[in-house]
Design goal:
The complex is a heterodimer. Chain A is of the alpha+beta class. Chain A has helices at 12-16, 18-38, 78-82, 119-123, 150-154, and strands at residues 62-63, 88-94, 102-110, 129-130, 147-148. Chain B starts with a strand and ends with a helix. Classes of the chains: A alpha+beta, B alpha+beta. The complex binds iron/sulfur cluster (4 copies) and FE2/S2 (inorganic) cluster.
Chain lengths: 187, 516
């Protein structure tokens, strides 16, 4: 097979590479010296150190609670309607004890499909969903765990993921008897 | 016919036509709440206000109370009309709760629709809203939220004029006017679902559909209710192959704008657990049931009988007749009248017929055409080895008595499917194109809304497959062609096709003897 021709023949100094290598090392060393003098490291020691995210950064979604502990979301279906990635699945139910009448029995967002556009936040008439957690490490070992459930998102407060195994502070009274706070297993 | 003028369009309409309807014919939409084509005129919402041009100048008048007469001219596009609409909307919304996120009417709400067109947008409301009773359970099918009511009185008039039950009433005065029931009473009639349909807002909503789905997700297909011989026209509302509700579809000659509650509930049958989804031979699932049935038909020789189905479509019955004629010329036809075991046997003067079969008139028509169709007694006496049954639950209809071996083409489990040695699944009407003849002799078309579940196929297609296995296919694989061949053969259907039937159906031609 014929090799493509280089579009430029190298000069003698270039083809010896020595000058070019020295140029590169000079650049590296200039950064080393700059950093030593300024202590202004461009590289951070992730994950021990994290960059502060800007206020408008859209991270993982969280669901908000009312002061009385009930979930703010009333399953109005505005967010699944507006979602361009079609990744929000809500099952609505009736809560006989709550003046809000309607609530989400389950609320799942498939984070593998989400494009972080933030339309769901904008569409919500109840300020029930926000993407202000600044969480960008959205990962899991399998696809099913990438679907964030209602219980998970209610607990995504203060930019912290709930520890595995911690008790969720989802108030079970948000749901009438017979409903579980966890999302039902989808077929 | 008088000529009326709406804005700049002149149009001829029958004398006495309501001007809201006349405007619709002229392509002008007049917003309205209280006017309903099948209720009396109340004229209380004032939303339909328009300017009528008179020799004395133009006067504001409500369109719903104007009847078409020669020379009547109205305008709906003047600044005055627009200002009135805006003010009416503002008044209606002064005390209206911000319930849209939890309101089932959202998406088909006239307040929402008209607000987008004629709204005030910037609220001038300073006073707190008047609150009323929310979430009241007033009947088996209806939830009432009095706060959302716009006092149009449609529901009141429905109770007074249609069902004659007079149950809902507007009480108190001024902004405390509230719709409600008399203390200790509940809605008792069988037409409650219509209240949710006619309520232009979300005050009366359906219990069955409550929070099930947002209406903007639903697609609508023009179907037929197959709950009884009336053949009410319905809109099948479905999403992703799942049927969520039936709504009445207007047909002034059949059901006006109404359907009964038992009929409305029939949407649950489409995806119900009682559906037959797989073919069975002698009780166990079988992928070659059609071939097996063909073998047994051949074995039975001329001791095969075919039972026409009063619940099956014209196409399915025609397929059965053609199949029998082509493959078993000696075979006899039967017709078992009566209702299935699981039928809700209610009837009244309004819509519900005691005959719970959608196509009795169609079977009658085909039976006359075939001639010599045996009735129940003939079936009991006949010496048969195999009986092919189309959809009807003949075991519960015959109520005991020895029957030969049964092969059942049905959509749901019943006494016949339990007794039949061969069961072939067929579709629910919502899953196929077909026609039915109602009690008036009106041939009506039903359209396919969703895909068939499981192995179910439309009965005519299933019979086509059986015909192929037997050697002579009836040629009924496709509904359009099936109906065409049927209309060519049966004189009383002459000239009809799916296009002619349209959305409102056509009456059968009178029998030949009468025509002469
Ligand atoms: S951020 Fe966008 S894509 Fe993601 S759930 Fe919200 S609307 Fe859907
Ligand atoms: S838009 Fe808000 S209230 Fe509506 S379903 Fe989504 S999160 Fe819930
Ligand atoms: S009746 Fe209409 S405007 Fe009122 S809450 Fe329901 S959807 Fe909204
Ligand atoms: S409940 Fe509905 S139909 Fe009845 S008066 Fe109120 S708005 Fe009209
Ligand atoms: S529709 Fe004419 S006043 Fe209500």
């Amino acid at each position: 097979m014929a090799l493509p021709k280089p579009n430029k023949t190298l000069t003698l100094t270039e083809s010896s590479y020595i000058v070019e290598v020295l140029k590169g090392m000079a650049l590296t060393m200039s950064h080393v010296i700059k950093n030593l003098l300024n202590q202004d490291f461009r590289t951070i020691e992730y994950p021990d150190v994290r960059k502060p995210m800007t206020a408008r950064y859209r991270g993982a979604h969280r669901l908000l609670l009312r002061p009385d502990g009930g979930i703010k979301c009333v399953a109005c279906m505005c967010c699944p309607t507006v979602c361009p990635a079609n990744c929000i699945t809500i099952v609505a139910g009736e809560n006989p004890d709550d003046p809000a009448e309607k609530f989400p029995v389950s609320f799942d967002i498939d984070m593998l499909r989400c494009i972080y556009c933030g339309f769901c936040v904008e569409a919500c008439p109840k300020d029930a969903i926000r993407m202000d957690t600044k969480i960008y490490e959205i990962n899991a070992y399998n696809r099913q765990d990438m679907v964030h459930s209602k219980a998970y998102m209610v607990n995504l407060m203060d930019g912290l993921k709930p520890e595995a195994g911690t008790a969720y502070h989802v108030d079970k009274t948000l749901a009438p008897a017979g409903y579980t706070a966890e999302a039902p297993v989808r077929p | 016919m008088p000529k009326v003028k709406i804005n700049d369009t002149e149009i001829e309409v029958p004398a006495g036509t309501n001007m809201i309807e006349a405007a619709k014919l002229a392509g002008v939409e007049i917003p309205h709440y209280c006017y309903h084509p099948h209720l009396s005129v109340a004229g209380n919402c004032r939303m339909c206000m328009c300017e009528s041009v008179t020799p004395r100048g133009s006067v504001l008048e409500i369109a719903c109370n104007m009847q078409a007469r020669e020379g009547l001219a109205i305008r709906t596009d003047t600044d005055q009309v627009k200002a009135v609409r805006k003010s009416v909307m503002e008044f209606l919304l002064v005390n209206h709760p911000l319930d849209c996120p939890i309101c089932d009417q959202s998406g088909e709400c006239r307040l929402q629709d008209y607000y987008m067109d004629h709204g005030q947008y910037d609220s001038r409301g300073l006073e707190p809203k008047v609150s009323k009773h929310k979430r009241q359970d007033i009947g088996d099918h209806i939830v009432l939220d009095a706060e959302r009511c716009v006092q149009c009185s449609r529901c009141e008039r429905f109770g007074d004029e249609v069902t004659g039950t007079g149950d809902l009433r507007l009480m108190n005065r001024g902004d405390h006017t509230e719709i409600g029931m008399f203390p200790g009473t509940r809605l008792e009639h069988d037409y409650q679902g219509n209240l949710a349909d006619i309520c232009p807002v979300g005050a009366l909503t359906s219990k069955d559909f409550r929070f099930e789905r947002r209406v903007w997700y639903l697609r609508e297909t023009a179907g037929l209710c197959t709950g009884c011989a009336t053949g009410c026209n319905i809109q099948v509302c479905h999403q992703d192959g799942e049927v969520f509700r039936y709504l009445p579809r207007r047909n002034d000659d059949v059901n006006k704008s109404w359907i009964c509650d038992p009929g409305r509930d029939l949407h649950k049958r489409v995806g119900s657990l009682e559906r037959i989804l797989r073919a069975r031979v002698d009780g166990s699932p079988c992928t070659t049931a059609q071939a097996e049935l063909a073998t047994r038909i051949r074995a039975a020789g001329n001791r095969v009988g075919f039972v026409l189905g009063t619940q099956a479509s014209l196409e399915a019955n025609w397929a059965l007749i053609q199949l029998a004629r082509g493959n078993c010329p000696e075979a006899r036809f039967f017709w078992v009248s009566g209702n299935d075991g699981d039928a809700i046997e209610k009837s009244d003067h309004l819509l519900m017929d005691i005959d719970k079969n959608a196509n009795t008139a169609g079977v009658q028509l085909l039976a006359e055409w075939v001639g010599n169709v045996g009735d129940t007694d003939a079936l009991r006496e006949a010496d048969l080895a195999l009986l092919i049954v189309l959809e009807d639950d003949i075991v519960s209809r015959l109520n005991g008595g020895a029957l030969p071996e049964l092969a059942y083409f049905g959509s749901r489990e019943n006494a016949t499917s339990a007794q039949a040695s061969l069961v072939i699944p067929v579709t629910h009407p919502a899953e196929m194109d077909a026609t039915y003849v109602n009690r008036q002799g009106r041939v009506q078309r039903n359209r396919r809304a969703t895909n068939p579940l499981g192995e179910a196929a439309p009965a005519y297609a299933a019979l086509e497959k059986l015909g192929t296995a037997l050697g002579k296919a009836p040629g009924t694989g496709l509904p359009v062609a099936t109906f065409l061949s049927l209309a060519r053969a049966v004189p009383r259907l002459a000239g009809l096709d799916y296009k002619v039937l349209g959305n409102t159906g056509r009456l059968l031609a009178p029998p030949v003897a009468e025509a002469k």
